[in-house]
Backbone:
């Protein structure tokens, strides 16, 4: 599954390890940022904006402790897909 010359690995960094990932807040944050550039397509309600700002813990976050996530990139219909894997290793052909 993860082998060959066209194998790709996605790497991302996590700056806020002590903060749990909240998919709903991540979606609001993404829409708030995207609305800056395309407000016709992306919107966040005033209530969502207040919730996002209230959840912002960056002032007290310890960003000096970062971690990295390495995940395999799979392809579906010529589009890259990254799915969470608790552990994995690439297959090596010899």
Residues:
């Amino acid at each position: 599954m993860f082998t060959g010359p066209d194998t790709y690995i996605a790497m991302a960094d996590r700056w806020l390890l002590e903060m749990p990932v909240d998919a709903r807040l991540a979606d609001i944050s993404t829409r708030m940022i995207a609305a800056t550039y395309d407000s016709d397509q992306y919107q966040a309600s005033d209530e969502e904006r207040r919730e996002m700002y209230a959840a912002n813990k960056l002032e007290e976050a310890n960003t000096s402790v970062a971690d990295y996530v390495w995940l395999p990139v799979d392809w579906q219909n010529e589009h890259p897909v990254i799915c969470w894997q608790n552990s994995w290793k690439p297959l090596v052909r010899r």
